[in-house]
Amino acid sequence: MATGQKLMRVIRVFEFGGPEVLKLRSDVAVPVPKEHQVLIKVHACGVNPVETYIRSGTHIIKPVLPYTPGSDVAGVIEAVGDNVSAFKKGDRVFTTATVSGGYAEYALAADHTVYTLPEKLDFKQGAAIGIPYFTAYRALLHSARVKAGENVLVHGASGGVGLAACQIARAHGLKVLGTASTEEGQKIVLQNGAHEVFNHKEVNYIDKIKKSVGEKGVNVIIEMLANVNLSNDLKLLSRGGRVIIVGSRGPIEITPRDLMPKESSIIGVSLYSSTKEEFQQFAAALQAGMEIGWLKPVIGSQYPLDKAAQAHENIIHNTGTTGKMILLL
Predict the structure, then answer these.
(1) DSSP conformational letter for 30
(2) What SS3 class is residue 95?
(3) How do beta strands 175-179 and 106-110 pair?
(4) What are the helix (H) ranges across 37-191?
(5) Distance CA 71, CA 96 (A)
(6) CA dist., res. 148 & res. 84, Å (int)
(7) Strand pairing of 37-46 and 73-80?
(8) CA within 13 Å, CB half, 57
(9) Which residues, in sequence order, are bridge partners of residue 304?
(10) pLDDT tens per residue, range 264-310
(11) What are 144-169's pLDDT values in tens digits?
(12) What does residue 108 show for φ and ψ, rounded to 5 degrees?
């Protein structure tokens, strides 16, 4: 280690595996921004389910070891590299990606993945925007091509992506139905854009949704847990209805014939299939939501950096999640 180099606390992964592979280190050098990069002093970092799949080694994305997880940080610009004109030291920002990893006191990011954080949102809320809101926007507007007047069912609506989907869908003139398994979760879903909410732990909840939407069925289903719900989803769809798969944790058996009479479709969504231009388009729409006030992240569980392993354990195994899980620095 070079003398005089500033060090930081950071979570490092040296091998793929369970939450216990997340190791806190305090001897890592603070990175220096290169051309078109900024260095952010991290105040908060979002924890996303995808980060647990990457850490376990089961995801299509396999970073070179060792690596630091995390993409959704919010904080203050500490330094800028050459040819960065959009930001300066002291600016409040949030990101959709990092170069060096977000579970750290400082994070490098390419300038085109960094956005201004309005004063009306705090850093915790800033850390809850990246993956949840950009994914929900891509799912609804890009993949499902929703139209005002349609209805949408958000499965698992009380989590980070689910609440983002409810807010975005309501702002775009859709009738919004949500599911959540706890009383607290159901209340939060109704407070964040849903017209109706259903308990997916109830045996007959599918019948209640059918009764609510009538013969027509559901136009769009945003699905967080396809391995559990997909078979039932297909029975709920309208003619031309679409299931947009945001999350799945295993296989499921379905009856393809359920798709045929209604000419319905199943569409997978992956945020990082978005082009740079699409990210800019999503960002412009979401910035407007922040200004107008319909984009309001709901914060759930909060953990200090040294409890990152506990956060990874809980995001997968705790049912009835409400709001966005974050690490505080």
Answers:
(1) P
(2) strand
(3) unpaired
(4) 49-56, 123-126, 130-137, 160-171, 183-191
(5) 6
(6) 39
(7) antiparallel
(8) 11
(9) 328
(10) 999 999 998 999 999 999 999 999 999 999 999 999 999 999 999 99
(11) 999 999 999 999 999 999 999 999 99
(12) -90, 145
Place of tokens 């085109």: 112
- Could you give the CA distance from residue 114 to residue 43 in angstroms, rounded to a whole number? 15
Q: What is the pLDDT of residues 73-95, one digit of tens each?
A: 999 999 999 999 999 999 999 99
Element (DSSP H or E) covering residue 96: none
CA separation (Å) from 40 to 115, 256, 314?
A: 12, 48, 27
Neighbours of 293 (CB within 10 A): 9
Distance in angstroms (rounded) separating the CA atoms of residues 183 and 189:
10
Could you tell me if 108 and 38 are in contact, meaning their C-beta atoms sit under 8 angstroms apart? yes
Confidence of residue 1 (pLDDT cuts 50, 70, 90): very low
- Tokens for 162? 């689910």
Judge contact between 157 and 178, C-beta under 8 A. yes
> Which pair of structure tokens corresponds to residue 80?
């800028």
In the chain, how long is the greatest CA-to-CA distance?
72
Q: Which helix (H) or strand (E) is 270 found in, with range? A: none
pTM attached to this predicted model: 0.94
Is a pLDDT exceeding 60 seen at residue 209?
A: yes
Judge whether 105 and 327 are in contact, CB under 8 Å.
Answer: no
Q: How far apart are the first and last CA of the chain?
A: 24
The torsion defined by the Cα of 142, 147, 151 and 155, in degrees rounded to 10, comes to: 10
Read off the pLDDT of each residue in 41-59 and give the average, rounded to a whole number.
95
Cis omega (within 30 of 0) on the bond before 31?
Answer: no
Taking alpha carbons only, the member of 208, 205, 193 closest to residue 162 is 193
Q: Name the β-bridge partners of 27.
A: none
Separation in Å, CA 260 to CA 239, 255, 315: 10, 10, 36
